[in-house]
Design goal:
With 217 residues, the protein is of the alpha/beta class. The chain is 36% helix and 22% strand. It has eight helices and ten strands. The radius of gyration is 17 Å and the shape is globular.
């Protein structure tokens, strides 16, 4: 799947300038960078939530699944929310068990905690097969245990579907655990991209080195 170059300007100020990239099936791409570096804007544009400055198709094709930072829960049970994206009851129950959500299946989803809502939204998304999945800080509201469970579900989903998955994350440790490639965004630009080993441990750009030294890997 090919991502074509695009940019985004707010009130005359360019906040994102993406050069384009080829995505390989079956790979997880982690996007890291400081707040305001363009990570979430990038994901929203690919998901169709925000328009890019350029008109036309940004992707070479395929179905896209998107999990935003702020997840929505409809006023129905947790299980009913999940089944909105697919009626495979066996799969829904398997995923709920895997992420420790089964005991909440009958609870009204709009009354879940932030971490529970994020787990519900992740399961709901993964009820369907997509060619490209965009996850924007999917585990930010979760504790350590459910973060690790969610990462396992994410990795298994990619293996099962052979999709490309873009993970926006503030956690360098998460990128190290599950990513195949890492992209570093700096002031709205994709400054450096490479394998997890190359970018996290032997980056080329001084800005990348400074970022990694400050936040730690």
């Amino acid at each position: 799947m090919k991502l074509t170059p695009f940019s985004k300007t707010y009130e005359g100020r360019e906040v994102l300038d993406f050069p384009g990239m080829e995505l390989q099936p079956g790979k997880i791409y982690a996007i890291i960078g400081a707040n305001g570096s363009g990570k979430s804007t990038f994901a929203k544009i690919l998901a169709g939530i925000l328009p890019a400055d350029q008109k036309g198709q940004l992707l070479s094709g395929g179905d896209i699944g998107y999990m935003p930072q702020k997840n929505y829960a409809f006023r129905m049970s947790t299980k009913e929310n999940i089944l909105l994206n697919g009626k495979d009851f066996t799969r829904a129950e398997h995923l709920m068990d895997a992420i420790q959500l089964r005991h909440l299946e009958n609870k009204r989803a709009d009354r879940l905690s932030g971490g529970e809502t994020a787990r519900m939204a992740l399961v709901r998304l993964m009820m369907k097969r997509y060619d490209l999945v965009l996850l924007d800080e999917p585990t930010a509201a979760m504790d350590m245990e459910t973060t690790l469970l969610s990462e396992t579900i994410i990795v298994n989903y990619v293996r099962e579907t052979n999709c490309s998955l873009i993970l926006v994350t503030h956690s360098l440790q998460q990128a190290r655990r599950i990513a195949d490639e890492v992209w570093y965004f700096h002031k709205g630009k994709l400054l450096e991209a490479g394998s997890k080993k190359q970018l996290l441990y032997i980056p080329e750009k001084p800005e990348t080195k400074q970022f990694l030294e400050f936040y730690g890997v």
